[in-house]
Amino acid sequence: MDKYGLIGYPLGHSFSISFFNQKFADEGINAKYVNFEIPSIDQLIEVLDQNPELKGLNVTIPYKEKVIEYLDNITPEAQAIGAVNVIRVSHEGKKIKLKGYNSDVIGFTKSIEPMLDKKWHKKALILGTGGASKAINYGLKSLGLETVYVSRYERPGTVQYSQITPEVIREYNVVINCTPVGMYPHTDECPPLPYEAMDYHTILYDLIYNPDETLFMKRGREQGADVKNGLEMLLLQAFASWEFWHEKK
Predict the structure, then answer these.
(1) What secondary structure letter does DSSP report for 148?
(2) Is-contact 189 195, C-beta < 8 A?
(3) What backbone phi and psi angles, to 5 degrees, belong to 231?
(4) Which of 32, 55, 64, 95 is catalytic?
(5) Based on the number of CB atoms within 10 Å of its own CB, is 80 exposed (0-12), middle (13-18) or buried (19 or more)?
(6) FRET label pair with 106: which of 59, 84, 126, 217, CA 20 to 30 Å apart?
(7) Is the dihedral of CA 143, 163, 205, 16 positive or negative?
(8) In angstroms, rounded to a whole number, what is the distance separating the alpha carbons of residues 195 and 191?
């Protein structure tokens, strides 16, 4: 039986495990998907050694960047993003070969593109600086938008939340939340932004999908903003993972 899985730490409830095992059951595919909760990325070697039937992995926080040094091959897109969330595992004789991809950017761009109006949406704020934010930045730029990273901390190439004025929100009217702020069970939290400056030209896109509507989305919607959560991105990203695992070599 083929095996697929997810590496990350901590994993808690994972969308991937339920999605893929349901897919295998529905389509009569002789495979299973398991979670590998590893406290350190160097335990990836152990996972591969102990699971010779492994054909593919998804990668989540905090290993999307750290996993790159373990790969034999990486797509130009994933290289440019600097983060990998899909690995194809193949066996050449006794050697295991790992190829890295990024499906976040595909899921995100396909999901947000219908919301964008080139006349109004030219600049975007990306909240957070982790592995997912790099794919979001790459995706937005590929759609022709200028981007700025927003961080709680002073980091090179970022602005801080205290610098996001109503004027900035009106200019950078596409805002993507790539942070865990507002995720269940902390549903009463949202990024500190001047929501009152938002209107029907504003797009708020939250990578979080639990709850369905985060406080970030709710506060924007109350001002007339167009809002969306990360569920469709997640589904599109899962479809892309399957394609990557089975692409012709």
Answers:
(1) E
(2) no
(3) -65, -45
(4) 64
(5) middle
(6) 217
(7) positive
(8) 10
Q: Provide the token pair at 90.
A: 């193949």
Contacts of residue 54, Cβ cutoff 8 Å, sequence gap at least 6: 3, 4, 5, 47, 48, 89
pLDDT at 94: 86
Specify whether 119 is catalytic.
no
The pLDDT-based confidence of 249 (bands split at 50, 70, 90) is low
Spatial strand order of the sheet with 2-8 comes to 31-37, 2-8, 54-59, 86-92, 95-101, 73-74
Rounded mean pLDDT of 221-248?
96
Please state the pTM of the whole predicted model: 0.89
Q: Which residue has the tokens 């639990």?
A: 210
> Do 112 and 141 meet the contact criterion of CB atoms below 8 Å apart?
no
- pLDDT tens column, 13-60: 678 999 999 999 999 999 999 999 999 999 999 999 999 999 999 999
Structure tokens at 38: 């590893």
Rounded to whole angstroms, how far apart are CA atoms 68 and 63?
9
For residue 246, pLDDT beyond 90: yes
